[in-house]
TrEMBL record:
PANTHER family: MALONATE-SEMIALDEHYDE DEHYDROGENASE (PTHR43866), METHYLMALONATE-SEMIALDEHYDE DEHYDROGENASE [ACYLATING], MITOCHONDRIAL (PTHR43866:SF3)
Pfam families in the record: Aldedh (PF00171)
Name this polypeptide is given: methylmalonate-semialdehyde dehydrogenase (CoA acylating)
Assigned keywords, A-Z: NAD, Oxidoreductase
Amino acid sequence: MIHSETSQWIPVTNPATQELIAQLPCATEAEVNRAVAAAKAAFDSWKEVPVGERARLMLRYQALLKEHHDDIATLLSRDTGKTFEDAKGDVWRGIEVVEHACNIASLSMGETVENVARKVDCYSYSQPLGVCVGITPFNFPAMIPLWMFPMAIACGNTFVLKPSEQDPLTPMRLAELFKEAGAPDGLLQVVHGGKEVVDQLLVHPDTPAISFVGSVAVAQHIYRTGTHHMKRVQAFAGAKNHMVIMPDAQKQQVISNLVGSSVGACGQRCMAISVAVFVGSANEWIPELRDAMAKVQPGAWDDANAGFGPLINPQARERVLRLIEEGKAAGAECLLDGSHCRVDGYPDGNWLGPTLFRKVTTEMSIYREEIFGPVLVTLEVGSLEEAIGLVNANPYGNGTSIFTASGAAARKYQHEIQVGNVGINVPIPVPLPFFSFTGWRKSFCGDQHAYGKQAVRFYTETKTITARWFEDDIAAGPNMSIHLK
Ligand code: NAD
């Protein structure tokens, strides 16, 4: 670790109290260059390290993360305001990706075909790219960095991580533990800062691959700038996730899943359900949904009765309050209004209570914009076809779910819906790491997604070898065609 010589510092605060937790240095241009250079130097030796040894580093890292699981979750709760239970989930879903990275040998196997021509064999290898960059958001400070650097490094790359400036303590702890697991110097670099640091990494000649997770506007900037500089980029962006509720679904299952998936983590999940679409008579459950949502209240991270924590900062709270007011002004019916929520003992927290709207139309800003707060909007339609049309007309495509007892309805939904992660009676269908996290449309820029086999394709280049070994010296003369004989 080096101490920055910067003159720019960002205060990191506890969102439940506004207490100052840390002062974050924005890395200077020279420090960013130094981090990339160190990662580049480490790549020269790391790319030659046998695959089993790379896997063993991940095995040791997985064990250490498990050993420190609760400490990391405690730090994460302080940094983000998440409840302890939710923070543990954030850490655990990251550990699962490290477990996946332990399988790197079988994941990165190439292809072979013998005798593509007489005595000619063809085979392919996956080779690492160099220094990969990861830029991560505030809302999953353990899981999302762990989506990226373990897979990239297991593939033989080195990595520069630029975590969110809003809650950098957890990513720093992840990096310390990685070093403790035996990562050689330079393998993983962490640099702090905002746009300036990101922009430097995006145009740096020694960073061939960029992974990003965050909001739509920034994802598009990252994708445009990175690809303009001839890098490969995967950029995961914002969302507006719909749950479609059929009248044959189980009412209690629908209500409890809707409450958890809409206001859990204060709605600050890219896979939160923020739109509920009731088909036909399922709309009769809306009053009960309101009562169930009203029972869940925010609180401090160590309050076992708290359903969720605060918003990340006062500006985020102001933004959500503005959207709630816009919804009311546009004529939506606010069945439950969390705008004035307070939490005893925490007068300065960025609190917002569960908020529920009915009679929402697709023109309203509460429907069009990603709110990223504990706000659920409901729409009512007459048929499954109408629900599918509605979801497909929305520009986002991160996640969606359908609740139904009908296999035929579920099959139709999974087939016709233009969204990349689909749940059937599962509200937040984040795939486990042996699959990939496959957001679509406005929720993703790029082609290869996070973790799973797609991460190996993203973090490696395929080399295909065509080989002939002569058994005897054949002087057949030059082959003037492209055809292999
Ligand atoms: P954000 O876009 O504000 O910030 C993400 C990262 O980009 C941070 O590291 C930040 O420092 C950097 N950044 C911010 N502005 C920048 C700029 N102008 N130029 C260059 N870099 C910049 O996102 P956030 O508020 O931290 O996270 C919330 C967003 O992330 C939500 O939209 C959420 O849906 C999305 N998200 C998406 C996924 C997914 O998998 N699709 C997962 C988690 C979060």
